[in-house]
Amino acid sequence: KKYFNLCLGHFNINGFEIIRGVTEDKGLNPSDFKVFDYVFSGHFHIRNKIGNIQYLGSPYEITWNDWKDIKGIHVFDTETKETRFYENTSSPKHVVITSSKIESINVIKQISKNNFIKLIIDKPIKPELRIEILNIIENNSTSLELLDESNNISIDEDIEIDIEDIASPMSLINAYCSEIKDKPTNID
Predict the structure, then answer these.
(1) Is 183 helix (H, G, I), strand (E, B) or coil?
(2) Are residues 92 and 116 in contact, defined by beta-carbon separation less than 8 angstroms?
(3) CA distance 55 to 69
(4) What is the C-alpha separation between 85 and 75, in angstroms, rounded?
(5) Structure pTM?
(6) Which candidate, 66, 13, 72, 7, places its Cα nearest to that of 36?
(7) Using one digit for the tens of pLDDT, what is the confidence trace for 137-176?
């Protein structure tokens, strides 16, 4: 039997995702809310509805955990009992750009404008282009994180390795010990 129509709160309720892939299991039991027709909660950033309980999610992206989630606000009509969602299309978003999928400099300008950018260098790019891309993102975005998975090797670099120039770990240790052997130490 329902005793109340509406409950609003900021709850930890079991069975709901806290962030993608992580579900609350130490919170309140959903059965505690069976006396309400409608339960609306904030706290978890993911929009989710199970039975009479609905997490509204965050109205805009706050951290990278919000990446790829549609954000906005909900309006509950107290007469019709309908909830309507309005997507937020104006707040900054978290966007991942990978060097292998860069189409053009103009696309970089558009994507990075006022957004939080994570640039992943997943294939080597020419140093001049890399500098240009970084400058564009830094000048247009809210923030930039750079993840370089290319080992900093430019496609224009010719790498020659002379096997005789490579020292073994033991030879490096011996050379270091020889260098410091005759130096005085100050141990107090």
Answers:
(1) coil
(2) yes
(3) 13
(4) 6
(5) 0.69
(6) 7
(7) 999 999 999 988 876 544 444 444 444 555 566 666 766 6
92 near 115, Cβ under 8 Å?
yes
Which candidate, 77, 84, 104, 93, places its Cα nearest to that of 6? 77
Cα separation, 59 vs 90, whole angstroms:
11
Q: Which amino acid is at 92?
A: P
Whole-angstrom distance, CA of residue 188 vs CA of residue 170? 30
- Please answer whether residues 89 and 98 qualify as being in contact, where contact means their C-beta atoms are separated by less than 8 angstroms: no
**What are 144's two structure tokens?**
């930039």
* SS3 assignment for 68-114: CCCCEEEEECCCCCCEEEEECCCCCCEEEEEHHHCCCHHHHHHHHCC
